[in-house]
Each structure stands twice: as C-alpha cells, then as structure tokens.
Amino acid sequence: LGLATIDIIGQRMRPANFLETGGAITADLLYKVMELVLQKEGVRAVFINIYGGINPIHEGAEGVIRYMREHNITLPIVAKALGNHQEETWEIFRKNGVKVVTDVSTEKAVAQLFQLLEGER
C-alpha cells in the first residue's frame, strides 16, 4: 500500500515523506505521524492512505484531526481510508475539512490530491 502510493504520487510530484505505520492504528500514533511528517519544511499537502482490517481507523482519524486543531493546520489533506469503521472515519475527516476519497483506487485518490494542489496556484 505505502510504496505503491509513493510511486503513484512520484509520477507528478516529489513525495516529501514515506511513513508506514504498520498495525495498531491509534489516535496517538496518527497524531505523532502528523507531527513527524509536518516537521519537514516545504510540505504542501498530506495524503493519508490507510486500511483497517482489524484496526479501528476512526481512532487514527481522531488523532489526525486533534493534531490539525492543536497546530492550526490548513494545508490540503486527502484521505483514502477503507476498512474497519470506514464510514465513521469518513465522517470525522469530512467534518474537519479533509477531502475523503471512498474509491478503492489509489490512483483516483492521488488525482484528488493533485487537483487540490493545482487549485492553489
């Protein structure tokens, strides 16, 4: 999932970071992920691609949103989140301004990221 996502993004942009969380998605883990990813200067957007087989991905979404709120993050964020508690995850993201892609296609999700960034110009 992760390396394929980097390859797709890399067709048109230079990814600033590749971060694979592994299992055990929690709010605290995704909060720390956001902290780590956004430390790098020049990050223009965040693309989240998570799959929850047994992982409750809505908890991860809560960590992302908590970080966004506490640090006043306004850059574009696109999330493709599928699996355990996906509808709840989509709602959490949508309510907080994150562009949600419900399609299984990572290519389509990344296309949404490109559109958001091109709209900034």
UniProtKB/TrEMBL annotation:
- What residues does the ATP-citrate synthase/succinyl-CoA ligase C-terminal domain cover? 5-111
* A single cellular component GO annotation: succinate-CoA ligase complex
Biological processes, Gene Ontology terms: succinyl-CoA metabolic process; tricarboxylic acid cycle
What keyword terms does UniProt attach to this protein?
Nucleotide-binding
Entry-linked InterPro entries: SUCC_ACL_C, Succinyl-CoA_synth-like
> Nucleotide-binding as a keyword?
yes
Q: Name one GO molecular function term.
A: succinate-CoA ligase (ADP-forming) activity
Respond yes or no to whether keyword DNA-binding is given for this record: no
Q: Please identify the protein, giving its name as recorded.
A: ATP-citrate synthase/succinyl-CoA ligase C-terminal domain-containing protein
- Source species: marine sediment metagenome
